[in-house]
Every structure is written in C-alpha cells, then in structure tokens.
Amino acid sequence: MKRIVKRKLHELAHARAGDKGDTLTLALFAYRDEDYALLRSQVTAQAVKRHLGHIVQGEVRRFEVPNLHALQFVCERALDTGVTTSLRIDPHGKALSYALLEMQIET
Amino acid sequence: MILASQGELDFLALECLAERTIALAQLRKLADPAGGFDPLLETRMSALLPLALRHGFRIVTNMGAANPLGAGRKVISLAKSLGLRVKVAVLSGDDVLSLLEPGMRTIEARGAPLSEYGALVSANAYFGAEEILPALATGAHVVITGRVADPSLFVAPVAYAFKWQMNDWQRLGRATAIGHLLECAGQVTGGYFAEPGLKDIPNLAQLGFPWCDVDADGNGALGKVAGTGGALTLRTAKEQLLYEVTDPGGYITPDVVADFTTVRLRETAPDRVAVTEGSGRARTGTYKVSVGYRAGFVGEGEISYAGAKALERATLGGEIVRERLREDISDIRIDLIGVGSAHGSDFGHPQPPYEVRLRVAARTPTRELAERVGAEVEALWINGPAGGGGVRRFAQERIGVVSLLLERGRVRPKVTLLEEDRETQAA
Fold it and tell me: Which one of B84, B197, B217, B403 has the fewest beta carbons within 10 angstroms of its own beta carbon?
C-alpha cells in the first residue's frame, strides 16, 4: 500500500512574488529538478485558487516554465486594487510568496 | 559605487521609476516647474559623474521622471560646479496627457474608460530602446529619459554598441531577458531572496549589484564585483527572470515580445550565471501608457498590545475604532499584525502571539476624514483597552495608476543634446 505523506510546499520549493497593477505573480521553483513533476501534478491553478481564495478575487492562470523548473501563477484581482490604492499592510503582495509556500501537497 | 569604480563598465544603467513614481513626480512638477525629476538625481550624479569620466563608462537613466529636460539641465549645472565638462542627451515626448480622451478604455481587468477614474494627473508612454538610440548616437556622457520600459534601458546600449536592426527580434528578445534580470539590481544578486537555513546569502549588508557581459548575439554572462556581498546563483537568477512576469512566453516591451521560456541559465563559476537562448517575436503596434489619477486619501493608525490577552485587547480596540468611524467611513480594514495580517490567514498555525499590533486603514474622499482614522486609533491610548502603546498614524493622498494602449504614430519622441553653453535638438 502506498503511503501518502502531506508536506508543505516550503519543504520542496522556493517562490517569488511580483505585482502588476491588481495582478499578483507567484513564481514557484522546485529546489530539486526531480520534484518539478510533482509540483506540476499537485500545484494546479485550481489548487492555488483554493489555497489563496481569500486573497485572490479573480482567476488564477498557471504557466509552465520547464526551462527553469518553474511554475508561474498569475492571479487576477489579488491586491485590493493594486499597490497605489490598496489598504493592505503589504500593498505589493511581496509577502505572499510565503502564503503559497504554506500550501500542503501529497507526496 | 563599487560597481561603477571596479566593474570595468562600458555603460551603467540606473532604473529608478516604479509604476506610480512618475505620477508623484508630475505632482512635484506642478508645484515647481523646474522639479519633477528623481529627488536623488543630484546625489547620485555627484557621485557617478567623476567616476564615469575617469573610467570611461556612459550613464543611461530614467531619473528624468516627469521632467527629463529639467533633470538634464540639473546635471549640466552640477557638472559645472564639479569642474567637469559633460554632454547630456535627453529623451522626452513620453508625456501624452494632452492626447487622452475620457472615453479611452484602460487595459485593467474591467476595461473601464478613463472617465470612471478621478482627475488625471499624468500620462506617460513607455518608450523603448529604439527611442533611446538617437540619444546614445549623440555621444553624450549621460542619457536621461522619462518613462522607458525598464529592460529597454539595458537593451538600448547593447543594440547601439552592436548596431542591431530594431526588428532583429531574436537578439532583442535575448537582450530583453538580460535587461529584465538586471533592472532590479540587487534582486538578482541575492536581494529579496534570503531565508536563513534554506536560502542563505552572505553579507547582504554590502550587497553587490550586477553587471553583464553581452555578446553581439545578445547572449550574456551576469556577474558581480569580487568581494561584494550577496550571491549570484542559478536560483537567484531564476527567481528574478519570472519576477512580475504575467506571461513567461510573451513578455511585452516596446522593443519586442520576448519569450523567457527558451532562456537557458547556467552557473559557469561562483557568482557567474550565463544567460543564453532567449528569443522574441515582432513588437506590438502600440505604446503602453501609464496614467496617474487622483484616488482620494488613505488614513492609517497603529497601536501595540503585549502580554496577557494581547489578542483580545487588540480585537476590542479594533471594534471600538470601527464603531467610532461607522457613520463617516465605510471602506475600512482592520488588521491584527502578528495574526495573519500579511496573508489574510494564519494557515492553521494556532499559537497565540505574545504581542499584537492593531492596524486600522481606510480609504476616504478627504484628507480630514483620513486624519480621523489615525486620530481614533490614537484615542485608544486613553479611551481604549488596557495597555495600548506605540501609536503611529498616517494620512496621505493617493495617486492611482491605470494603463492604456496608444498607437505608436501618435507619440513623438524627442532628443535634445545639452552642453555647457547650448541646447540642440538631436532627433
């Protein structure tokens, strides 16, 4: 019987957040190239939308960037209107890379 | 400064404009027609001009912000006071406020027309490398621009040095990947990256900024000056390549639509990363325009609670302020700093914090109302829960930013060459 272990993304991957207007970008990188396939199968756009649904009001799109062993998540309406008019303590959403890394996946 | 004096540079680019910076600069220009350029221009140029002349590198910067010509004149007078003779080429024409019409649609998610936003204060088209080339061709020591796409500040010197055709999409795509990696300076050499244990970066306090050796095909090798802090690794470069990128296969700049999904990054030596195999396709027919508008005010107040029942007392304080402002202010946000304020959740980490900082922020139509937000938090000192301390309060006007696209033919870039005793139009 296969044993399923739940792990936080933080153990497997690093991330960087960026902003463009009200759009949040979250880039996710496997520490080890061999974990990229696992990230691809588990960290889907839907899973990220579910995990960050209280922050991301709009759609989450996922781009695969295999040359960097990376996934890029583009999250619409995620920054309370954007850096210039947001009321959030972190109007750029720079701290949100670590919100993504709190996500649990099955390995 | 270390990079400028020890980097053996041909060109030094300084990218200094965030999305909203130019709108704020436009407001400063309204208050003072000779101002409106980057407030650090004098400090930076005083330090860099002597080095540029001594080491023979040229400076390309968007520190002109809302007033590139004013910035150019300031550099000329600054050089004179330093006993230096310099030529400065200024790229202007990006200010397109007069071309805007209320019915123009923004490219934000809703596509709302400009008329739905507050009073417009600025509109600047993002120029590219092509518009910078005539400024470089003047031979000026310093090229000063207003709004320019960040990577284009780096693409332009390369395209100029190798005499590229400006429809050489592959080379422009490659150089754009390099420009994008360089544009946030220390963010590729270990800034915005470190996490003790898993992602250690040495000596961030002396973070070294990056340089890149670029070849005639637009492939390059990133490095940093030996002995400086930070680290340039495959991981730091990967993170920066995707930073703020909303489509890795189609990164749109005024120069090209670059494809970052073909880029190959390789660590070739300690603190050296090769960037090759980038690509690109034909640029679009429009300039992106960043429009600043008056977006009302924001008021904020913060107060700390620590020790027994800190969370309960902070929560009570927030409830009091909300009730006090209820009749006048609806667009309000209450944060408990230390309890999920940054992520909107604690993702199941249940430990009660020893200390909590209550933060109240609200959008208001007037400065007076914005001031009241902080005033009500300050009142918690006396009229709120026990043991609240360390109040800080802020009230600021906000300038919002939206974007739209404008046909290239409608915008007229202009290059002016400034010398000690004359100004001539170069392009």
Answer: B197
